[in-house]
Amino acid sequence: MVTQITRGIKISVLTSFEGTYFKNYKLHFAFSYEITIENHSKDSVQLNTRHWEILDSLNNIEIVDGEGVIGKKPVLKPGEKHTYNSGCLLSSPFGAMSGYFNMINFTTTKTFKVIVPTFKLSAPFALN
Prior knowledge:
Layout: E1 2-6, E2 9-23, E3 26-39, E4 45-56, E5 61-67, E6 75-76, E7 81-90, E8 94-105, E9 111-122
Antiparallel strand pairs: 1-2, 2-3, 3-7, 4-5, 4-6, 4-8, 8-9
């Protein structure tokens, strides 16, 4: 698990290899990840958008921007947390993801970035 705290918001990430399959005559490596967002600040916040950079070991990079996470824009009061699961496909058995969430602080009405720590994606059969 990797964790990072930005402005009182703690992000924790767990990853898992889900398997391989062929799509359009090409082998893909499927990974899942679980992200927990914890509000350790004194203000209520809301996650509005996300930004991901997904990199595989073949130097392919995919940028993903979108509203919320898995169709939700969670509001977190002080002390609350939100956990969700998602996944990605890579063209190689190794890779990494990094990014950030754009959030709004309801007390100040200001938006801010919460950094998601870089997390590695690796198929266990490919490790020495």
